[in-house]
């Protein structure tokens, strides 16, 4: 065992081999891992403490959602908005956010009460795209403080794209045509609006 710097915040942190490269071996050959061959993992970086403020947090850069509340929005109701930015490698990637600035830990009861049903509605709406087999959703929240969930449309039958590596595939697959992206966003917005809220037609408008 090497030295244990006492200033690190936990036994977990003190155990890690900073500066060393982990082996990619546990991932190689997994049906969900999109790389093969000799892979070099980047050296493990030291922890940054205290963590730098996220966008929209006190002392951090401005909140992009609050600075441009309707930017890229394809659907909204009184509480929530759904954004889609531009064509990527998946049929659709979208972000669900509350209209007001909250974190997950201070989301008020009136929003937590509708979060489950709006997730269900967005997932179902995205799945109505003919190329989509399932809708993945994730909360990371390490970039912006404003609570947001990512929705990633997993193409039908593309079993390599199951699991978390779908985000890597999204960056590597050929971008879908702009017209198809527009059609997908409109389909999803219209499907959501059937059960409440309004479709916002600005995205990809010709
Ligand atoms: Zn905000």
UniProtKB/TrEMBL annotation:
It comes from the Bacteria. It comes from Kribbella sindirgiensis. This is HIT domain-containing protein. InterPro entries: HIT-like_sf.
């Amino acid at each position: 065992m090497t030295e244990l710097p006492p200033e690190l915040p936990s036994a977990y942190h003190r155990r890690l081999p900073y500066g060393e490269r982990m082996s990619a071996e546990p991932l190689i050959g997994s049906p969900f891992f999109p790389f093969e061959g000799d892979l070099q993992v980047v050296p493990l970086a030291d922890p940054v403490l205290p963590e730098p403020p996220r966008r929209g947090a006190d002392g951090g850069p401005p909140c992009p959602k609050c600075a441009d509340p309707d930017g890229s929005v394809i659907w909204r109701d009184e509480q929530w908005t759904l954004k889609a930015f531009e064509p990527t490698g998946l049929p659709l990637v979208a972000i669900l956010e509350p209209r007001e600035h909250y974190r997950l830990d201070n989301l008020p009861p009136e929003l937590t009460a509708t979060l489950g049903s709006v997730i269900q509605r967005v997932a179902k709406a995205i799945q109505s795209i003919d190329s989509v087999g399932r809708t993945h959703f994730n909360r990371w929240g390490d970039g912006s403080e404003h609570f947001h969930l990512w929705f990633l449309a997993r193409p039908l039958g593309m079993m390599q794209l199951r699991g978390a590596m779908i985000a890597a595939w999204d960056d590597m697959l050929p971008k879908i045509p702009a017209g198809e992206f527009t059609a997908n966003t409109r389909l999803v917005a219209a499907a959501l609006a059937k059960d409440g809220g309004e479709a916002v037609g600005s995205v990809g408008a010709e």
